[in-house]
């Protein structure tokens, strides 16, 4: 579904991604784990187009998206729930969700909205409140729900567990897992390596802008190097 | 009492123009957080282009339409040529660019047109209408109705249409707007075009009353800005109320104090708003959770 080859990206003169290869197959949950500053967020920003790729290809469903502007990528089926949640704080919860389906104006929008409310009942309760007033966990739910409103084939999730209480983290990961049933492929970037690897099919380990290890999630969890470096065991 | 009503009429007329200028500010501010100080020049161009195309032989409605469309095109050009290339620059830099643009437009108008005062005939004649002992020009009614109509249209646009909400979303969070598929560059183009068209409409409506020359834009921009601040920057309702209120304040000052102090009112309003309630009448304090 998604094949990244030789991806490089830079902020000014400083290159932060040094030729990255990565693959996500249809129906998978794939996770990229790594320490703070490894370039995980930059990777996702390149995939969604909010950060330019200086070299390499991003082939998604048979088309190279590397030069496609960010606002056209959702129509191709690639959605991102960005780091720091990035919701529309001045708009209501419902308006946020409606804008998630900005590309559509058919009757499915209402169905999808009802779906989102079924998935996160708390959002339904707060549908008319300004999104900026939600708690961190609720904002994260809104960000995921909004991304799903765009009917993606593949969802890029950036640090959904960041800053959340353990109970909420478990809930968010449960939601991510439930996306399998909806035929949404997931690329999950996480610092919480243990939680991410537990729900993922495969994983990549990223260090200073490069992929240093890859394999089935179960193998990575068992790998002593990973356990020492990222799982704190 | 008659005098009071007369001041109210003149205040509402001027206030409606300020409201239109303030509405123009609102649109661009909503899309980009930029206060476009070239807004007053759009008003001037609306009047000037109508004058010259009318004198060249075009019927008045067509001349007015041409002025609005040409000014809208210039607004789009301003965005494409000056604002878009500076994308990513701090808002203050963008505001300074608009000040530069306003100086450029003023200078160019002085060369292309001239330095004289101009007017064209009022739409429904110049016979004042008598109301309760005071009089109002039919053109004043055009101005007031025009401002209210534009306000209602914008209010519906921002609250009822998806495109309107896309504009608000772009202002609120550009990255997130792109991620939901909004073409943010297009939103900016739309905002500048729309805002310039509204400015030009104000110029078309008011020229028969106040006359127009190449340099009327500066004062209008400042007063429209004061009106927008008073009502709450970014809020169409605030722009309308702020504009009318400022117009009334000016008319009362001119009537009861001295017309020499009239222009000071706008500045006192800006100062007062900044000291007492920086969010304006309808602006809400922005709160953000981190």
Automatic annotation (TrEMBL), chain A:
A biological process term (GO) from this entry: L-amino acid transport
The protein, known as: Branched-chain amino acid transport system ATP-binding protein
The keyword Nucleotide-binding is annotated on this UniProt entry: yes
InterPro entries xrefs: AAA+_ATPase, ABC_transporter-like_ATP-bd, ABC_transporter-like_CS, BCAA_Transport_ATP-bd_LivF, P-loop_NTPase
Protein keywords: Amino-acid transport, ATP-binding, Nucleotide-binding, Transport
Transmembrane segments: none
PANTHER family from the UniProt entry: HIGH-AFFINITY BRANCHED-CHAIN AMINO ACID TRANSPORT ATP-BINDING PROTEIN LIVF (PTHR43820:SF4)
Record GO terms (molecular function): ATP binding; ATP hydrolysis activity; branched-chain amino acid transmembrane transporter activity
Any single Pfam family the record assigns to this protein: ABC_tran
SMART domains attached to this UniProt entry: AAA
Keyword NADP assigned: no
Ranges where the ABC transporter domain occurs: 2-233
Highest taxon of source: Bacteria
Similarity section: Belongs to the ABC transporter superfamily.
PROSITE patterns for this protein: ABC_TRANSPORTER_1 (PS00211), ABC_TRANSPORTER_2 (PS50893)
From TrEMBL, chain B:
Organism: Salipiger marinus
Gene Ontology terms: biological process: amino acid transport
Major site of localization recorded for this protein: membrane
GO-annotated molecular function: transmembrane transporter activity
Family: Belongs to the binding-protein-dependent transport system permease family. LivHM subfamily.
Keyword Transmembrane helix: yes
Protein name: Branched-chain amino acid transport system permease protein
Localisation per UniProt entry: Cell membrane
CDD domains listed in its UniProt record: TM_PBP1_LivH_like (cd06582)
Membrane topology, record value: Multi-pass membrane protein
PANTHER family registered for this protein in UniProt: ABC TRANSPORTER PERMEASE PROTEIN (PTHR11795:SF450), BRANCHED-CHAIN AMINO ACID TRANSPORT SYSTEM PERMEASE PROTEIN LIVH (PTHR11795)
Keywords: Amino-acid transport, Cell membrane, Membrane, Transmembrane, Transmembrane helix, Transport
Lineage start: Bacteria, Pseudomonadati, Pseudomonadota, Alphaproteobacteria, Rhodobacterales
Entry's transmembrane regions: 6-27, 60-79, 91-113, 140-158, 179-205, 211-231, 238-258, 264-282
One CC-aspect GO term: plasma membrane
Entry-linked Pfam families: BPD_transp_2
